[in-house]
Amino acid sequence: MSRQNINVMWLNLIQNKISITFQYHPRIVNAVKTVTGRSWNAPMKRWECPIENADEAVRILTPLGFTASAEVRALVDEILQETKIADDIKNGPTPEITSRFPLFDFQKKGTVFIQKMKGVLLGDSMGLGKSLQTLAALDCDSGPHLIICPKSLLFSWKAEISKWAPDDKVIVIDGDKETRKTQWFYAKTSKYTVANYELLLHDTPFISTTEWKTITCDESTRISNPEAKTTQILKTLKCGKKIALTGTPVANSPVDIFSAIDWLAPRYLGSFAQFKEKYCVTDPFGSVITYKNLDHLAGKVNRFMIRRSKEEVFDDFPKMTISKVLFDLSPEERKTYNGIKELIRAEIMKLDLDNPSSIVMIPVKMLRLLQMTDDAKLLQPEWKDERSKLEALKDILKPIMKSLD
Fold this sequence. Notes:
Elements: H1 3-7, E1 10-14, E2 17-21, H2 26-32, E3 39-41, E4 46-50, H3 54-61, E5 67-68, H4 70-91, H5 105-116, E6 119-122, H6 130-138, E7 145-149, H7 154-164, E8 170-172, H8 177-187, E9 192-196, H9 199-202, H10 204-208, E10 212-218, H11 229-234, E11 239-245, H12 256-264, H13 272-279, E12 280-282, E13 288-291, H14 294-302, E14 305-306, H15 331-349, H16 356-374, H17 388-403
Parallel strand pairs: 1-5, 6-11, 6-14, 7-9, 7-10, 8-9, 10-11
Antiparallel strand pairs: 1-2, 2-4, 3-4, 12-13
Helix pairs in contact: 4-5, 5-6, 15-16
């Protein structure tokens, strides 16, 4: 290559991407193609890569004669500093923090990790308090914060916030479209807004009108399919910090982690096709049959993820934790519940309350209401409609069973 070619080989920061400019040479093109997340910008006739991979681009391309601009060098320094901070938090002593939340030492590390990092995958095992660590990390920020979770966990999140931060305003998005529209309007002035994943599809215009400080995805395996509409819409939402929570970051295969990381840092692992090319072995039909370069993948992901198992934090963790899981009855269940309640009220009005044997009958009758909230099939074996408590239980058990695989 001539000296003239070398002089035009630059790494610049343009429109929040690393611009890679050079005069064509096959050797340079091949080197550029090894940078994770690279893409060809046809209109501008230049190669680009995400800013999160600035350090990788500099490491690969500067030995070939590329010059990194001051902005790119500053980005590299920032990435290296962030990586060091992440390592220090995970491997260092318990940080000293002041919090109104009752945190164990390992939870203090998780809280500080969330506070310090721009994108976080908190992959602690089930039962280690991922929601508590998240709320503790966001406690000093007035929001607005959006929490997206399975529908069965909507009211559990509200209860958790009300329990530890009773003065913080929280809105649960639920009900018909007009009701939700009003709720989304008031979300702008609430510290926390809790919504289920399905509303990403139905309420996109309402969600997009708010400038969220953070978006938290609970049970983030729900976005493990990069081609799902829910995942694609989520990636269009703007916010200052992104937090993914899951007890099973790799539920079935390493492919599961791609979409969550791609949300936290777009194209950090490349396109899905590039990811599969680098980390998957496929058959002639494109189906994944095994994996490769997993140590490299673990190293890439490590910057964003903190994960602890119960065995690792056994000395910190209490012997038993009892959690209340709140759920709402479906419209059909609520209608039946109210019908039973009115029937019981009418029966009680007929009782002789001066007769002790009549008073004893009241708890027996009230048991029917308890049975209805437990499972409608206890009262109506032919029940065909939604069974809310069973669905809530399924959502709790699924990640537990996956973690045992």
